[in-house]
Specification:
The protein is α/β, with parallel strands linked by helices and 385 residues long. The chain is built from 13 helices and 16 strands. The strands form three sheets. Strands 6, 8, 9, 10, 11, 12, 13, 14, 15 and 16 form a ten-stranded mixed beta sheet that branches. A three-stranded antiparallel beta sheet has the order 1-4-5, sandwiched between helices. Strands 3-2-7 form a three-stranded antiparallel beta sheet, with no helix packed on it. Helix 9 runs parallel beside helix 10. The longest helix is centred in the N-terminal third of the chain and has 21 residues. Bound molecules: calcium ion (CA). Calcium ion binds next to loops.
Length: 385
Amino acid sequence: MRIAHVRPSILSVDLPDGEVFAYSQAWYRRRRSLVLEIETADGTVGYGEAFGPAGTNAALIDEVYAPLLLGRDARDRETLWLELYNAMRDHGRKGTALEALSAVDIALWDLAGKHFGEPCHRLAGRNYRRQVAAYATGFYRKQVVGGLTGQAPLLVEEALRYVAAGFTALKVKIGFGIDDDAAVVAAVREAVGPEVRLMVDANHAYDRAAAREVARRIDRYRIDWFEEPLIPEDQRGLGRFRSESPIPLATGEAEFGRWGFADLLRYDAADIVQPDCCAAGGLTEVLKVADLADAAHVRCIPHVWGTGIAVAAALQALAMVAPCPPGLTPREPLLELDRTYNPLREELNLTPPAVGSGMVYTIPTSPGIGFEPDRRVFDAYREPR
Ligand code: CA
């Protein structure tokens, strides 16, 4: 399986005016993803994706990773992973270096799956579940008169739409001020009733004192987890928050590699770790993080954001995360499913995963990650390079 071509592409979509949205850190006006094709000499193509700045990730692949990959055997995933990681070790042990490496790693898993005719989870011998329930990620703030706060009525409408669609778990964006956060969570809980699982995500909008205050104000609404209350650098603060908050703490979408997560766990800084397959170092590294979490008796529920490739890779990862702990009724992980406008998520995969009632996804068993591109969609959204 000699690697013959390494082709990064940037796919992008300008959001229509009504679909522009904000989380606690920034406005989103455009969706942009780095998609990677690695082709072997026999013409087989593996697909990967990187989270983060697409142009920077593409440049890193072109300049550093592609020369190291060409001519090598695509089956040597972990060997190549370490070589590529080591090539950037002195310059970027977190962030884009790992994001670009994630795209390479996912593409190599996809190639191996296609070569051996097995889904990735079969190659790994890790087939812990065949289905996984999705939770809805949404509740971003819209461009409306009145600004970023006071949007609880709109968010309640959105929650009811997700429940009507079959979702049994919802993650609400917070981080817009303590009073607004409390009002939003109260309104959504009131609207959806007691059975729907609710999570909140502040995207590290708070300092330690404010995060504690938010947790105290919203605990009464039965929250499954509080995601990223603090900046990812404050691992000690996250550890302290976890020990004081009645709400389980989730974090890790902005953490990278086994070493970053080992530090997080050393500080007891998470009840749930959330490595992203397209950021933390690919499927190879997410498996290592999942096993570190298992050893620490901490849940692993991958973060997901991106195109149909990211969703496919996450579903393979979810088949491979061991129940923690096992039992007759283990607490199962969930698939994060972004609900914002993104044709790259909805239309790029010609073989989208099957979804049943309750938004329960069947984990694909086709060879590789379970992704085949619709070339028409791929080419329509590809930026000239
Ligand atoms: Ca998040």
